[in-house]
Design a protein that fits this description.
It is a single chain. The chain is α/β, with parallel strands linked by helices. It has two domains: about 140 residues, Rossmann fold (3-Layer(aba) Sandwich); about 300 residues, TIM Barrel. The chain is built from 20 helices and 14 strands. The protein has a six-stranded parallel β-sheet with strand order 2-1-3-4-5-6, with helices on both faces. The protein has a six-stranded parallel β-sheet with strand order 7-10-11-12-13-14. α2 packs across α6 and α13 runs parallel beside α15. The longest helix has 30 residues. The radius of gyration is 22 Å and the shape is globular.
Length: about 500
């Protein structure tokens, strides 16, 4: 059969200024599982067409129009594009299948457009899909946890199509690897909150690292594990098997609590860990992950600053992840605490996020029961800089003013000068400049929304939960983002089918 696999990373770029960021950054978010599915389909002797879409070009031209089966992986905010492609291929009687983060969060909504929705996947399940073993309009999942994934060598044709540029590696290229699945923490906003942590066999990781060292020397590797906290020592032991002169720089996400051991930090340095993303989330919660014990609020800041300063002596690029607007956030304290943290740690990139109530999380269930979700808000808006729920302690206008305050502080000229002065590495400096410019490009959207609230009563009423009528401004944004594909989706198609409270 002719099988297509597309990894949807972004909606089409709406302005030319977005294109460089898409090439340098978004392109590198290519997921490992779509590549694995491509390998499995090829091993099952099917003709495979693989593509990633990161917002550049026409998404309908990414794959041939005459496919027998189409596999789609999508983030929630890209789901309108996934739905449009499903409708397009359904006209040709193609079997359509969706997996990935959006399918896991909102499977019922996906079933409106796709024949099959996959929660967890492995080679056996893919073989059953291609054998037409399932009734259409069914949610399916593999019968056991993922244990075996294709090697980097097997994925090379698809790596060249995704994270390479015109088939060749370039400075931004990263190779996705997976050492474990699940997460040891249960953050209520995360879709992995109830996914048990499971390490994958280390022999394949060693095989992949040796292949990369020999055939792609110096290329960055990025671990797509939700959190390497529990498995650090195991992964480090494998990385240490590679001769020191051949080790690749690596990118990981971890909790701060698991990085407190100085011996482990030395091993991270020696195995060339070049980037760590750390979840701080909120100053009033999740202190166990941050290794801050019972400290909360402003009292937590010095402890976290101290930990990051130690970490910066061993790892050249650090990122702290914040979710501002969770229920424990109230008043000026979280804003002032985050700004103080930024000022004291210019060597850390602060990623400040708006809470997104993804389905099948405790956060979604709670806010749904409390009537705090904007029920008619299309999934496209489940991303920065949009607000899709009612903050517990802030009016929407006040909330946006504080988000603007945080982002403006993070990207101010003074902070950029401090960041550039905090390192001599050209790649870290370049990345900080690119990310600063990208956030500065988003800030006008925040300010535009404040203007809309001030001059349009309907807009403010919608964001206060007083009406379910989607404001015309949202309609225009969505239509512009979909472009020519907007003709494939009706207004009812774009109104989400949210899971029940229970």
């Amino acid at each position: 059969m002719r099988v297509g696999i597309i990894d949807l990373l972004s909606m089409p770029a709406s302005h030319w200024v977005e294109v460089p960021y898409r090439f340098l950054m978004t392109k590198q978010y290519a997921s490992l599982m779509p590549q694995a599915i491509a390998v499995w389909c090829r091993q099952l002797v099917h003709e495979v067409f693989y593509a990633t879409y990161y917002g550049y070009g026409d998404p309908t031209e990414a794959l041939p129009p005459d496919l027998d089966v189409l596999f789609v992986s999508s983030f929630t905010h890209v789901s309108p594009l996934a739905y449009a492609l499903a409708k397009l291929y359904a006209k040709a009687n193609t079997l359509t299948v969706i997996g990935g983060p959006h399918a896991k969060a909102f499977p019922d909504d996906c079933l409106r457009f796709f024949d099959l929705v996959v929660k967890e996947c492995d080679k056996e399940l893919v073989a059953d899909i291609l054998a037409h073993s399932f009734d259409k309009k069914t949610l399916i999942s593999s019968s056991h946890p993922l244990q075996d994934i294709p090697t980097v060598e097997e994925r090379m044709p698809y790596l060249r199509q995704s994270v390479f540029l015109r088939g060749r590696r370039y400075p931004a290229t990263t190779i996705p690897l997976l050492a474990s699945t699940g997460c040891p923490y249960s953050c209520d906003f995360c879709i992995d909150w109830n996914s048990a942590y499971r390490p994958l066999p280390t022999d394949q990781l060693e095989t992949d690292l040796r292949y990369i060292a020999k055939h792609l020397p110096g290329v960055r590797i990025t671990f797509h594990d939700p959190n390497l906290a529990t498995g650090w020592d195991t992964v480090l032991a494998v990385l240490e098997k590679i001769p020191s002169g051949s080790r690749s720089p690596c990118i990981v996400e971890s909790s701060l609590a698991s990085l407190k051991k100085e011996e482990r930090l030395r091993r991270l340095r020696d195995t060339r860990c070049s980037f760590i993303g750390v979840g701080i989330e909120s100053w009033r919660g999740y202190s166990g992950k941050a290794g801050a014990g019972s400290l909360q609020g402003a009292a937590k800041v010095p402890r976290v600053v101290e930990e990051f300063r130690l970490l910066s002596e061993y790892v050249p690029y650090l990122q702290a992840n914040f979710v501002f607007g969770l229920d424990m956030d109230e008043g000026e304290e979280p804003v002032e605490a985050t700004k103080e943290f930024m000022s004291q740690t210019p060597f850390v990139w602060p990623a400040v996020n708006i809470p997104q109530p993804f389905g099948n999380t405790p956060l979604f269930t709670q806010w749904r029961k409390e009537g705090r979700l904007l029920k008619t808000m299309p999934f496209y808006f489940y991303q920065m800089p949009y607000l899709v729920s009612l903050p517990k302690h802030y009016d929407p206008m006040e909330y946006y003013e504080k988000v603007i305050e945080l982002q403006a502080h993070a990207t101010s000229g003074e902070m950029l000068r401090k960041r550039l002065a905090s390192t001599r590495r050209w790649d870290v400096r370049a990345l900080n400049i690119i990310r600063t410019l990208n956030i500065r490009n988003i800030l006008p959207f925040f300010r535009k929304r404040l203007e809309d609230w001030r001059r349009d009563p309907q807009f403010l009423a919608f964001h206060r939960g007083e009406t379910d009528v989607l404001p015309a401004a949202h309609e225009r944004i969505l239509q512009r983002s979909l472009g020519n594909l907007s003709t494939l989706l009706s207004r009812s198609d774009l109104t989400p089918l949210l899971p029940a409270c229970g």
